[in-house]
């Protein structure tokens, strides 16, 4: 099977218009070249993070190559605000910028240039951190996120093979100097791969990661089945019945609840989840990643922690945390958490059947410091609250 055929196989089904994330490195330039040779209708995008002086020139080189190949191209720029972890912030910003570009261009599928070497390097990096099954499993070849389909059609192809193909075609690419900088985890992983003993090749490690990905898919299916029988949503809270569940399935249901309630976009640390489950089994409350947890009537209740939303205030009509509120038109009101002060203004809250901790983090309508309405706490005043998105997604 030719390189082009393997690329197309990794892309199946081929979309009517394919978005290409092209940084200018060898992998993404190969992605561009193969897509053009395959006769696909493409759009290309480059994200300049402004972190290296060479990045702007590399983006211009990509634009020039795309012009030569007849592929529409756009460069997007991002500036770091200095907050948080830089690599993680850059990755998230890149994904968000590309997604916005794709929607503007009418692109439904975006291809990324990750290769088999990336799979092996990621495996080693996560192994060094003591990752479990989910961390060690190979990165997904295809997934849906943010209304788009993302794919990695080169994930089964080695980096050197792609560079050899580019050399044959007379195409050049940029080399990121951080790839050889031992200050970066990935650079150290590449060096470790080169020094592995006989038999532990990049291909072998990528295969192992693939086997673990298959095991993860099986566990995901078992978790979805368990969710239908052991998990339900109660007005924004998640209730989990732990009876008869294997510990790993229980842990995964809790992770699913945390992700749905907290919306962090990344899982909490395994140690934090283990401590929370230990606390719940002996009747103590716990909190992880903006989610509170309490054992109640034989079930675990997961709810939004008030401390995570106490400062969140939005205009009426805007999405507040996971909620949208509708009610009588009124000037000067905003949506914010009910909180302990608001709860004091809702004497009938117990009749609603939600615990105090949940209601404190529920949405309420305020006019300055005066509570106007609390739809979930027995003081609707013509207002209603609906989850956005609807809760059906959590059990699938």
Strand order of the biggest β-sheet? 3-2-1-4-6-5
Uncertain segments of ≥5 residues (pLDDT<50)?
none
Which overall shape is indicated by the principal axes computed on the Cα atoms? globular
Taking all residues together, what is the mean pLDDT? 92
Summing up helix and strand content along with how strands pair, one would put the structural category as alpha+beta
Helix content: 40-55%
* Proportion of residues in β-strands: 15-25%
In the CATH scheme, the class of the largest domain would be Alpha Beta
What Rg is obtained from the alpha carbons, in whole angstroms?
25 Å
**CATH architectural grouping of the largest domain:** 3-Layer(aba) Sandwich
Q: Please give the domain count.
A: 3
Provide the CATH superfamily of the largest domain. Answer: HUPs
Helix count equals 14
CATH topology of the largest domain: Rossmann fold
Strand count = 17
Q: How can the largest sheet be summarized?
A: 6 strands, mixed
What is the CA–CA distance across the termini? Answer: 37 Å
Short description, anyone?
One of its GO terms (molecular function) is tRNA(Ile)-lysidine synthase activity. By secondary structure, the chain is an alpha+beta fold. Helices cover 42% and strands 19% of the residues.
